[in-house]
Amino acid sequence: MMTDVHASSCVLGGGTAALQTLLGHPLETIKVRLQRGTTDWRVLSRHAYTGWRVAFLTQLCVHPVFFACYRHCRSDSPPWLSGAVTGCVTALLLQPIELRKTLLQSGSPLPSTRGWHGLVGWTRGWPLLLSREVVGTACYWDVFERSGAVTNAWAAGALAGVCSWLVSYPMDVWKTQTQTNAHQTPRASFATQCCALGVTLVRAAVVNGSTLSLYDATTEALHCVQ
After folding, report:
1. For 175-225, what is each residue's pLDDT tens digit?
2. I want to staple 105 with a disulfide (CB 3.0 to 4.6 A). Which of 32, 67, 177, 194 is the partner?
3. Taking Cα atoms as reference points, which of 158, 164, 165, 161 lies closest to residue 209?
4. Which domains are seen in the chain, by residue range?
5. 59: Cβ contacts below 8 Å, ≥ 6 apart
6. Residue 201 · residue 166 · CB < 8 Å
């Protein structure tokens, strides 16, 4: 049984990594640049796939852990608590590659790799990333499991993605600004941040609807095998 769980988690990891990179990465790049204050849509569209390799490798490494951890915790805990624990675990794995991806997407320089200060530089924004992942993932799984009982997997996934980003978005803005040293540049206006939130919610609906449809189908297939 454990072999089946690990195998299905790896399938989910690869499938969702491909889906998130293909469907979600351009919108995420636009979100990051809007959070930084870029409003020129020619620049936004031209660099939409910047950092996609890092994004794909991030999802490929993290998503098997994401699904396996949630399934393991879910056997003994409610969805929100299982999601919170899962978010804490994934935040530990995400930090260095999330920082690199965000810096590439925003066009900011990477931190130094030399000495103690270089090591500290790679932890920039980690408390905010942890907060975003714990709060967002707890909401994500709780909404998905509750709404999945009354609607199809795509709609439940889209709703879960939108709700999780609505509650975690302020932390994501702060994380992006901290990681990219946005305090050294003019802050994005309220209208620009609202536009970034709109892009984020569209991405959340499309990506998570597709991702959790795959999750639901894989889970059902695993149950049939058992």
Report:
1. 988 888 755 555 667 788 888 999 999 999 999 998 888 877 777 765 565
2. 32
3. 158
4. 2-225 (1.50.40.10)
5. 13, 16, 17, 20, 21
6. yes
